[in-house]
């Protein structure tokens, strides 16, 4: 146990409780509770203890994390089964293998080549006149907001979504939350477009701000903040990381992006960053919408039009199944194909309208 280990180390250093308290600045009563197992230190307190006791942070943290897992699962009858499921998911999210560049099939490479050819044609169609560009943005923004929210269960129709965004109307029989989801998503799209115009890259600040916009006035307490509670995906048996793992997983997330942002094909990179964020599930709500906006930030900043995954039942199921292939079987290929298909469809639609 962490508390027993902490006490053993302190006694081996011939330190009294009050002496360790003076060295760390942690209240003596609190340290006593750590040692009895009545209280767990914060990450910052753990660091202070490791420094003043002359023991590696990794050694203390291993015991600290083990106690957290035990506290969570000790009374669960299916604890061992849950640990086995979680082990494979955490291994996928943290292993060195997931930092390697993926191998692409010939079929997928052909789709990427097709998308690149369409992107070239789209860029040759520029510059569009201001009014034409504005109309294109309005058309695709509304459709994207409608579909992305529909995936998450929003019941506003495409026409109703347009009325809420463009006219500020209130739709009878629809909840305030559904109206706010539409308004917020529309604002988040505008934020992403401003990032593209300003050439601002993906970062922790960007992800948190996108999420803040998604949940603004819907859940201000959790908007732009990592979750502090365990969550489950409705209708899925996928085990999600516990809150105490999120900080490290998000560090790995941005490390992966730094490593591969110029090495992977943009479509593959956008799919990876989408899937990884959904799988980490760092937020109480809004993970899907935030992940899809991150995907499109990557695509748009590299000259593609945004991919708009549909929210009808068949498309939504295909989307969830493709994500589960990565999460359960470490097979990203179906998800790569899904994103590539959506990018191609989007580019073809943009070219047709031009």
Automatic annotation (TrEMBL):
<dbReference type="InterPro" id="IPR001387">
    <property type="entry name" value="Cro/C1-type_HTH"/>
</dbReference>
<dbReference type="InterPro" id="IPR003812">
    <property type="entry name" value="Fido"/>
</dbReference>
<dbReference type="InterPro" id="IPR040198">
    <property type="entry name" value="Fido_containing"/>
</dbReference>
<feature type="domain" description="Fido">
    <location>
        <begin position="202"/>
        <end position="341"/>
    </location>
</feature>
<dbReference type="InterPro" id="IPR010982">
    <property type="entry name" value="Lambda_DNA-bd_dom_sf"/>
</dbReference>
<dbReference type="GO" id="GO:0003677">
    <property type="term" value="F:DNA binding"/>
</dbReference>
<feature type="binding site">
    <location>
        <begin position="285"/>
        <end position="292"/>
    </location>
    <ligand>
        <name>ATP</name>
    </ligand>
</feature>
<keyword id="KW-0547">Nucleotide-binding</keyword>
<feature type="domain" description="HTH cro/C1-type">
    <location>
        <begin position="6"/>
        <end position="60"/>
    </location>
</feature>
<dbReference type="Pfam" id="PF01381">
    <property type="entry name" value="HTH_3"/>
</dbReference>
<keyword id="KW-0067">ATP-binding</keyword>
<dbReference type="Pfam" id="PF02661">
    <property type="entry name" value="Fic"/>
</dbReference>
<dbReference type="InterPro" id="IPR036597">
    <property type="entry name" value="Fido-like_dom_sf"/>
</dbReference>
<feature type="active site">
    <location>
        <position position="281"/>
    </location>
</feature>
<dbReference type="GO" id="GO:0005524">
    <property type="term" value="F:ATP binding"/>
</dbReference>
<feature type="site" description="Important for autoinhibition of adenylyltransferase activity">
    <location>
        <position position="152"/>
    </location>
</feature>
<feature type="binding site">
    <location>
        <begin position="319"/>
        <end position="320"/>
    </location>
    <ligand>
        <name>ATP</name>
    </ligand>
</feature>
<protein>
    <submittedName>
        <fullName>Helix-turn-helix protein</fullName>
    </submittedName>
</protein>
